What we know:
The structure is a single chain. This protein has 9 helices and 16 strands. The protein is α/β, with parallel strands linked by helices. It folds into 2 domains: 3-115 and 299-327, Medium-chain alcohol dehydrogenases, catalytic domain (Quinone Oxidoreductase, Chain A, domain 1); 129-269, 3-Layer(aba) Sandwich (Rossmann fold). Strands 3, 5, 6, 7, 8, 15 and 16 form a 7-stranded mixed beta sheet that branches. Strands 11-10-9-12-13-14 form a 6-stranded parallel beta sheet, with helices on both faces. It has a 3-stranded antiparallel beta sheet with strand order 2-1-4, with no helix packed on it. Helix 1 (44-50) crosses helix 9, helix 2 (121-143) packs across helix 3 and helix 2 (121-143) crosses helix 7. The longest helix is centred in the middle third of the chain and has 23 residues, at 121-143. NADPH dihydro-nicotinamide-adenine-dinucleotide phosphate (NDP) is lined by residues 43-45, 129-130, 133, 157-163, 181-183, 187, 202, 223-224, 226, 228, 245-249, 270-273, 315, 318, 320. Residues 15-326 form the Enoyl reductase (ER) domain. It is an enzyme of class 1 (oxidoreductase). Its EC number is 1.3.1.84.
Amino acid sequence: MTTFTGWIAxxxxxxxxxxxxxxxxxxxxDRDTTLRVHxxxxxxxxxxxxxxxxxxxxxxxxxxGIDATGEVLASRHPRWRPGDLVxxxxxxxxxxxxxxxxxxxxxDGADLVPVPAPFTPAQAAAIGTAGFTAALxxxxxxxxxxxxxxxxxxxxxxxxxxxSVAIALLADSGYEVIAVTGRPDTLHDRLxxxxxxxVVDRAELDPQGKPLAKQRWAGVVDAVGGPLLAGALAGLRxxxxxxxxxxxAGAAFPGNVMPFILRGISLLGIDSVRTPRERREAxxxxxxxxxxxxxxxxxxxxxxxxxxxxAAADVLAGHGTGRTVVDVR
Length: 329
Ligand code: NDP
């Protein structure tokens, strides 16, 4: 038996609470691979889980954290040897399986991806589920036929994790990027450095009940839902494609069929949690090709494990920018 420190969500007489505790390895499930976690990160889901909010944790007690990057300690899986540096996003971690905001994790070797060059383990954690989802979104748009020559791509929630990585990936892949943010004054320079050609105030995208607007962009990477998604769809060019992955602005959106039936647009859903291995590897290869590690560092901050809950409060308050790595070592 080994002890380790981790953020664990529990049912208490006062409701759902997540606390930092000293844990026994016996708390973990029997999985084929044990990881010494070096880094995790704070995604929107982690922020909810760390503050006892509903919608993420499906069993309690549960070690939180939807990402884990670290070193294989032991594995019964044929792909992995002790010492291998690996990363894991989603696959139920921090939702219905014990997660990565802790020193030890027991995981399925089939879900792991090697930390790919040129990234360090800390940079792989900085990418995390948010960056992985940005890559899945771009892969989905391109599978659907989008190419840089078709026109600009709109990115919503630009200041957040998914948005920031999406801007960098799209720009490096040759797309003209329009970044949509609620904080245009504060974030203009940062988003431009990431590769945005234009920075637009989210208020400008409010469809105000109109189903169709001027046809301005060929693709959309949406991480916020709500009225912004409706506005993004209203401005898609004929045959354009949008991806939807998030609900920072709300799960419901005031959509209308008109852009679908008059302009032949498509809306593709992205689920990073249950992504098959081939697609996980394709997303990480895309990141390795098109995400400059130095640029990633400019939108990453690092906090110790003990500060994860405070960092999560910033995300819930809408003050988060870019990515937050949690140093678990
Ligand atoms: P962040 O908190 O890092 O970023 C969210 C961004 O959304 C904010 O920075 C802000 O950007 C914008 N935003 C926040 N509130 C509002 C609002 N009320 N109206 C419009 N925009 C708003 O989160 P992530 O980037 O990590 O995740 C974004 C979403 O994607 C979350 O809902 C998350 O759960 C989801 N997600 C889903 C995944 C999947 O597999 N489907 C995987 C990963 C994430 P700005 O200030 O620039 O406007």
